[in-house]
TrEMBL record:
<feature type="transmembrane region" description="Helical">
    <location>
        <begin position="360"/>
        <end position="386"/>
    </location>
</feature>
<feature type="transmembrane region" description="Helical">
    <location>
        <begin position="480"/>
        <end position="500"/>
    </location>
</feature>
<feature type="transmembrane region" description="Helical">
    <location>
        <begin position="83"/>
        <end position="102"/>
    </location>
</feature>
<keyword id="KW-1003">Cell membrane</keyword>
<feature type="transmembrane region" description="Helical">
    <location>
        <begin position="108"/>
        <end position="129"/>
    </location>
</feature>
<feature type="transmembrane region" description="Helical">
    <location>
        <begin position="307"/>
        <end position="327"/>
    </location>
</feature>
<dbReference type="InterPro" id="IPR036259">
    <property type="entry name" value="MFS_trans_sf"/>
</dbReference>
<dbReference type="InterPro" id="IPR020846">
    <property type="entry name" value="MFS_dom"/>
</dbReference>
<feature type="domain" description="Major facilitator superfamily (MFS) profile">
    <location>
        <begin position="17"/>
        <end position="508"/>
    </location>
</feature>
<feature type="transmembrane region" description="Helical">
    <location>
        <begin position="141"/>
        <end position="162"/>
    </location>
</feature>
<feature type="transmembrane region" description="Helical">
    <location>
        <begin position="168"/>
        <end position="192"/>
    </location>
</feature>
<keyword id="KW-1133">Transmembrane helix</keyword>
<feature type="transmembrane region" description="Helical">
    <location>
        <begin position="231"/>
        <end position="250"/>
    </location>
</feature>
<dbReference type="GO" id="GO:0005886">
    <property type="term" value="C:plasma membrane"/>
</dbReference>
<dbReference type="InterPro" id="IPR011701">
    <property type="entry name" value="MFS"/>
</dbReference>
<feature type="transmembrane region" description="Helical">
    <location>
        <begin position="334"/>
        <end position="354"/>
    </location>
</feature>
<feature type="transmembrane region" description="Helical">
    <location>
        <begin position="204"/>
        <end position="225"/>
    </location>
</feature>
Length: 510
C-alpha cells in the first residue's frame, strides 16, 4: 500500500508559510516602538523643529492605520501574496531611505513610505492565513501565532532599539529592517499564490472616505491627549471623522462591489469582536505607557534594562497564543475571549500594586498576565472577524481587524494618558514642598521626567521633597488608572462571554 502523503505535505507547507508570514508582522510591530528610544539622537543629528519632530513620529502610524482597509481590498483584487511581496520590498527600501536621511523632511517622507508599505502587510498576512488554513480550528491556531508575533515585536522594539543605539548611530533602528525584508522576499515562494479577484474595481471614493475617517479620528484622539489647539478642535475633528465613517459605511451598502462586505461588520459575533479588539488594544497601550515610565523614572532602570524587565511579557504572549489554540479546539470562542479578558484584568490588578519603593515585580507579573490574556483575546477576535467575511473579502476583513486595534491604541494613549495627567498634577500640587520655587513646581506638574530634572537642580531639602512628591503622584495616578482598566476589562469579559455564548467553535455566526 502506498501512503497518501499529500495531506501531510500540504499541512507542512501551510505551517512553513505561516512561519514566513510571522516575519513581516514582527518587523511592522517592532517599527512602531523602536523609534522612541532613537528620538534624542535623531533630534541631535537632524535638528528638526517641534512640528517636524511630531511628523517624524506620527506620519508612520497615521498612514499605516488610515490605509489598512484600502490595502486589504487591493490585496483582494490583485492577489495577497503579490501585494505582500511588493509591500515588503517597499518597506525595505523605505527603511534604507530612513536610515540614510540627512534632513528632517527626508526622514518624514521615508516614514510616510514606511506607513504606506506597512499597510499592505498585515491585512494580506491575515488573508493568507485564511487561505493556508481552511479548517477553522487550525486557522484559529495560526491566527494566534500571528498575533503572538505582533505582540513579541512590539515588546522587542525598545530592547532592540536600546541594543542598537548602544553601539551604532540612530539610523540603525531602521536599517535592521532591510535584511529581514530581504529574507522574507526570498522565503515568500513558500506562500500560496492567489490571483485575487481581478475583475473587482477599487472604489477610490470609498478609499478616500475610509482614510479620512481613520486619520481624523486618530488626530482628534491624539489632540485630546496632548491638549493641543483650542478645546473644541478635537471634538470638531472627531465629529468630522465620524461623518466620513458613516458615509463610508452607507456607500458600501449601495455599491455592487463594496470595498468590504457590510455583512462582515453586521454579524453580531463580528461586532462584538471589533469592540473587544478596540478595548484590548486600549489596555495594551495603556499598560505599556506607564510600565516603561515606572521602570525608568521610578525604579531607575536604564532603557535597555527596562526592556529586559518587560521581556517576560513577550514570552507570555507566545504562551497566550498556544493557550488560545488549545481553547479554540476544545471550547467556544466565548470561553477563550472571556478567559483572556479576565487574565488581562488580573494583570491590571498586579500593575495596581506598584509602589514608590521601586519594586519591579508588580510590573513583571502584570505585563506577563497581560501578555497571555491580550494575545488570547486578540487572536480569537481576529479569527472571528476574518471568518465572518467571504473569502474574496478576507483582505479587507484583515484591514478591519488592524484598524480596530489602531483606534484602540490611539484611544488608550489619549484617555488613560489624560486621566493620569489630571491625577498626577493634582498629586504634585497637594504634596509639593512650600520651599520649592513656583516655577520649579510648575515644571514638575508637566511630567515626571521634568520633575526629576528640576528636583536635581534644587538645593537643600526642596529637591528630594519635590522628587518624592512627583514620584508619589505618578505612582498613585498609575494605580488609579490600572484599577479603572481592571474594572473595564472584568466587565467586558462578562459582556463578551454572554454575547458570544451561542457562537460555535467552528463558525463565527450565532
Amino acid at each position: 500500500m502506498i501512503a497518501n502523503t499529500g495531506g501531510a505535505t500540504a499541512r507542512r507547507r501551510a505551517w512553513a508559510g505561516l512561519a514566513v508570514l510571522v516575519l513581516p508582522v514582527l518587523v511592522i510591530s517592532l517599527d512602531v516602538t523602536v523609534l522612541y528610544l532613537a528620538l534624542p539622537a535623531v533630534s541631535a543629528a537632524l535638528r528638526p523643529s517641534a512640528t517636524e519632530l511630531l511628523w517624524i513620529v506620527d506620519v508612520y502610524p497615521f498612514l499605516l492605520a488610515g490605509l489598512l482597509i484600502t490595502m486589504g481590498a487591493v490585496g483582494d483584487r490583485i492577489g495577497r501574496r503579490r501585494l505582500l511581496l511588493v509591500g515588503a520590498a517597499g518597506f525595505g527600501a523605505a527603511s534604507l531611505l530612513a536610515a540614510c536621511s540627512t534632513t528632517p523632511g527626508m526622514l518624514i517622507a521615508a516614514r510616510a513610505l514606511l506607513g504606506i508599505a506597512g499597510a499592505t502587510l498585515m491585512p494580506s498576512a491575515l488573508a493568507l492565513v485564511r487561505h493556508l488554513f481552511p479548517d477553522a480550528r487550525q486557522r484559529a491556531s495560526a491566527i494566534a501565532v500571528v498575533t503572538a508575533g505582533f505582540a513579541v515585536g512590539a515588546a522587542l522594539g525598545p530592547l532592540v532599539g536600546g541594543a542598537l543605539l548602544a553601539r551604532f548611530w540612530w539610523g540603525s533602528v531602521f536599517l535592521v529592517n532591510v535584511p529581514l525584508m530581504a529574507l522574507f522576499l526570498v522565503l515568500g515562494r513558500l506562500l500560496p499564490g492567489d490571483r485575487g479577484e481581478g475583475a473587482r474595481r477599487i472604489d477610490l471614493l470609498s478609499a478616500g472616505l475610509s482614510l479620512a475617517a481613520v486619520l481624523l479620528a486618530i488626530s482628534a484622539i491624539k489632540a485630546l491627549a496632548t491638549g493641543g489647539g483650542e478645546a473644541w478642535h478635537p471634538f470638531l475633528t472627531l465629529t468630522a471623522g465620524a461623518a466620513f465613517g458613516v458615509s463610508f459605511a452607507l456607500r458600501q451598502r449601495r455599491l455592487a462591489e463594496p470595498m468590504i462586505d457590510p455583512a462582515v461588520v453586521a454579524a453580531p459575533a463580528s461586532r462584538v469582536s471589533v469592540g473587544t479588539n478596540v478595548l484590548a488594544s486600549f489596555g495594551m497601550v495603556g499598560s505599556a505607557l506607564f510600565a516603561g515610565q515606572y521602570l525608568q523614572l521610578v525604579a531607575g532602570e536604564s532603557p535597555l534594562a527596562a526592556g529586559l524587565w518587560l521581556l517576560p511579557g513577550a514570552v507570555a504572549a507566545v504562551s497566550g497564543a498556544a493557550l488560545a489554540s488549545v481553547l479554540a479546539r476544545r471550547s467556544r470562542p466565548a470561553v477563550a475571549i472571556g478567559s483572556g479578558l479576565a487574565l488581562a484584568a488580573a494583570g491590571f490588578g498586579a500593575l495596581a500594586l506598584v509602589s514608590v519603593d521601586a519594586a519591579v515585580w508588580p510590573v513583571v507579573l502584570g505585563t506577563a498576565l497581560l501578555g497571555v490574556g491580550l494575545t488570547m483575546t486578540l487572536s480569537v477576535t481576529a479569527g472571528l472577524i476574518i471568518a465572518s467575511a467571504p473569502p474574496r473579502h478576507a483582505g479587507a476583513a484583515g484591514g478591519v481587524v488592524e484598524t480596530s486595534e489602531k483606534l484602540g491604541s490611539a484611544s488608550g494613549a489619549a484617555v488613560l494618558g489624560a486621566l493620569h495627567a489630571v491625577l498626577y498634577r493634582a498629586g504634585v500640587d497637594a504634596a509639593a514642598p512650600p520651599e520649592a520655587p513656583a516655577d520649579a513646581v510648575a515644571a514638575a506638574r508637566e511630567t515626571l521626567g521634568s520633575a526629576l530634572a528640576v528636583a536635581a537642580r534644587l538645593s537643600g531639602g526642596a529637591g528630594p521633597a519635590l522628587r518624592e512628591a512627583a514620584t508619589t503622584a505618578f505612582v498613585s495616578g498609575m494605580r488609579v488608572v490600572m484599577l479603572a482598566c481592571l474594572v473595564a476589562f472584568a466587565a467586558t469579559a462578562v459582556v463578551a462571554t454572554v454575547l458570544l455564548r451561542r457562537v460555535p467553535g467552528d463558525s463565527p455566526r450565532p
